[in-house]
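FAQ: What does the model actually see?

It sees only this:
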Amino acid sequence: MSILVVDDIEDVRELFKAALESGGHRDVIAVESAAAAFSFLEIDAPLTAGAPPVDMVLLDIVMPDVDGIQACSRIRLDPRYADLPIVMTTSLDDMESVDNAFQCGATDYLTKPLKVIDLLACVRSNLNLRTDLANRSARERELMQYAPFRF
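And it is asked to produce this:
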């Protein structure tokens, strides 16, 4: 499963990548800005029927130009990313920042400095939830083929 790390600080991106790879996640893409994330996710491109290019996003809140709150909101506007786990990562731990993150559509919230075990547990649980939701949706579509009535 692939993970997109978005952080403006190169050392942080490298630490995230190393921590995730130590936990067995080999497909980690790291970008330096919200604009780079939008480009990678093809946010402004015409909608395609294909699957999203990543299974999860780790998104820093405090970034220049477009912050993580704005970026999360913009990603959520794209229907392809409605169920994509977006975990906000930040040094901000005040209640307003946490509330803003969840208001914009964040799935989870981790404060820096991160403990590797916390990061890996968060990633594992969010990826498992994503897989479970995808399996449930597939099963619901399968069952709807046999439903005598369609609403």
